[in-house]
Amino acid sequence: MSDHDPRGELAIRTLAMPRDTNAHGDIFGGWLMAQMDVAGATVAIRRAQGRVVTVAVESMAFHKPVFVGDALTCYGTILHVGRTSLRVRVEAFARRGRGTVEEKVTDGVFTFVAVDEQRRPRPVPPAP
Fold first, then answer.
1. What is the CA radius of gyration of the chain?
2. SS3 26
3. Residue 34: CATH number of its domain
4. Based on the structure, what is the number of domains in the chain?
5. pLDDT tens-place string over residues 84-126
6. Is residue 2 in a domain?
7. CA–CA separation, 82 vs 96, rounded Å?
8. What is this structure's pTM?
């Protein structure tokens, strides 16, 4: 790793494709943010033992660009569990082309709320 080792659990790995770019060939920040939202939700769902919804993105910092062909890997760490909510830090790393070195490109903090079948907030169960 060139910046620092990722913290948390591996939540998602995907490939940046040409369809995810703007007219200049740069990967959209919105695409990257969506991948991080999915990664954070994956971590939150496991801890909440069921469905969650995103209610806030507390912070987001784009450190380096992501390019077509980069393998994007996101890691999630639960920062806080409330009665119905969870805050998850998500860090995104890019492995360039066919290389083996990953570098941190983005990080953010996402807040999720556990919901029931009627989409109403429900308590997060105690940690197993």
1. 15
2. coil
3. 3.10.129.10
4. 1
5. 999 999 999 999 877 788 999 999 999 999 999 999 999 999 9
6. no
7. 37
8. 0.91
